[in-house]
Specification:
It is a single chain. The protein is α+β, with helices and mostly antiparallel strands. The protein is 16% helix and 30% strand. It contains six helices and 15 strands. The N and C termini lie far apart (45 Å).
Length: 335
C-alpha cells in the first residue's frame, strides 16, 4: 500500500483497508448536504463517555454548534443527570417519548466535525454490540500521533481491543488497531503525522446506499473493483473479505467510508435512539423542504413524528434512517 497525505490518509485504489479509503473531490451539482455538524452516538452514561474520550483521545468539551461562539475554555460543563431535559420536541424528533435527555459536545483536534454523546434515561434500552462486518455497524476513525499512548489509555479504561492479538497491526506503512468504547461503539485508531478523524459504516447493499447518499444527498462514492482480506486481523475477523468505498461529505474534506463484507456470517444491527452505541449523523442541508419532499418520494424511513421537522430558534431538524438503519438528521440552520 502507498499513502497520500493526511487528512485524507488513503491507500492505492487496488489495496484498501478500513480507515484508508480513497475519495474523490467530485460532487453533484448543488448537493442537498453542505456539511456535517456532529457525528453522534447514544450512551448509557454521558459522564463515563466524556471521561473516556477526554482521557484516551484528548477530546475537549465544547458548546453546541448552534449556540453562541465562545472560547473553548468557557464551554458549559456537562449538566448532571438529575437536570436532564424532558422535552416533547426531542421526543418528537427522536421517537423517545417519556425519556429524559442530556448530551455532551466534544471536539477532536484536526477534525472538521464534532463528536457528540446523547444520553436517554427513563426509557427501555438494549445493548447492541455490532461487529465491524454487521450491516448497520459504524466506526469512529481517529488519526493519532502516538498509537502506543492511546493503546495504554484504552487498556487503562478497560476498553475491549477488537484487533487480533490486542496490539496495533501494520497496515501498509501505518499501524492501526480497532477497539470499543464503553458503549460498544467501534473505534479505529491509526497512527499518523497529523491528527484528524473519519467515519465508517457497514452496508448490506451498496446500491441502496448509493441511492441514499449519492442520489438523495449528493455524495460521490468511490468504489474499488475487488474484495480483499489483508486487514482481517485489524477487524478481529478470522475469515471473509471486505471492500471499502469512500466519499467526502459535500463541501468538506470529511471522509465517510462504506464497508461491504462477504464470506462471514452477519447479523444486521437494529438501532433505536436510546440504545447505547446508536449512531447518528447531523448533516447541514441547503433546502430542507425540497429534501423532505424527495425523501418521501424515495420512501425513506422517517423517525421524527409526522415526517415533520421540529422548529427551534436556531433551525429546523428532522431525522430519517439510511438503508442500514443509521440515523441521519437533516438540519436547516436559521441564517
Amino acid at each position: 500500500m502507498r499513502f497520500l497525505a493526511i487528512v485524507l490518509l488513503t491507500a492505492s485504489a487496488s489495496a484498501q483497508a478500513p480507515g484508508f479509503g480513497v475519495t474523490s473531490t467530485k460532487s453533484a451539482n448543488a448537493p442537498a448536504v453542505t456539511g456535517l455538524y456532529n457525528w453522534i452516538h447514544s450512551t448509557a452514561d454521558a459522564d463515563r463517555g466524556v471521561a473516556f474520550y477526554r482521557d484516551v483521545f484528548g477530546l475537549d468539551l465544547v458548546n453546541s454548534p448552534f449556540g453562541p461562539l465562545v472560547p473553548a475554555a468557557t464551554a458549559t460543563p456537562l449538566r448532571p443527570r438529575a437536570q436532564g431535559a424532558s422535552d416533547p420536541l426531542i421526543w418528537d424528533l427522536t421517537g423517545t417519548r417519556g425519556s429524559t435527555f442530556r448530551n455532551a459536545f466534544m471536539k477532536l483536534s484536526g477534525a472538521e466535525f464534532g463528536h457528540e454523546l446523547s444520553e436517554f434515561t427513563g426509557i427501555e434500552q438494549k445493548q447492541v454490540r455490532a461487529n465491524a462486518w454487521d450491516p448497520g455497524a459504524t466506526m469512529s476513525i481517529f488519526y493519532v500521533r502516538d498509537i502506543d499512548r492511546v493503546l495504554a489509555g484504552l487498556k487503562s479504561a478497560g476498553a475491549e481491543i477488537v484487533t487480533r492479538g490486542g496490539a496495533p497491526v501494520r497496515v501498509g506503512q501505518a499501524r492501526a488497531l480497532v477497539a470499543r468504547d464503553p458503549d460498544g461503539h467501534l473505534l479505529e485508531v491509526i497512527e499518523s503525522a497529523t491528527s484528524g478523524a473519519a467515519i465508517g459504516l457497514t452496508v448490506a447493499d451498496l446500491e441502496a446506499t448509493r441511492r441514499f447518499y449519492e442520489g438523495l444527498l449528493g455524495f460521490t462514492i468511490e468504489t474499488p473493483a475487488r474484495f480483499e482480506s489483508d486487514a482481517r486481523g485489524l477487524l478481529g475477523m478470522e475469515t471473509g473479505e471486505y471492500r471499502v468505498s469512500a466519499a467526502l461529505v459535500p463541501g468538506t474534506s470529511i471522509r465517510l467510508e462504506f464497508y461491504e463484507f462477504k464470506g462471514v456470517p452477519v447479523t444486521p444491527a437494529r438501532w433505536r435512539f436510546q440504545d447505547p452505541g446508536s449512531p447518528q449523523f447531523q448533516f447541514r442541508v441547503r433546502d430542507l423542504d425540497a429534501l423532505l419532499d424527495r425523501s418521501r418520494r424515495a420512501n425513506v424511513s422517517f423517525v421524527s413524528a409526522g415526517q415533520r421537522p421540529i422548529q427551534r430558534p436556531f433551525g429546523r431538524f428532522v431525522f430519517v434512517t439510511d438503508p442500514d438503519g443509521v440515523f441521519v438528521e437533516y438540519v436547516h440552520p436559521t441564517p
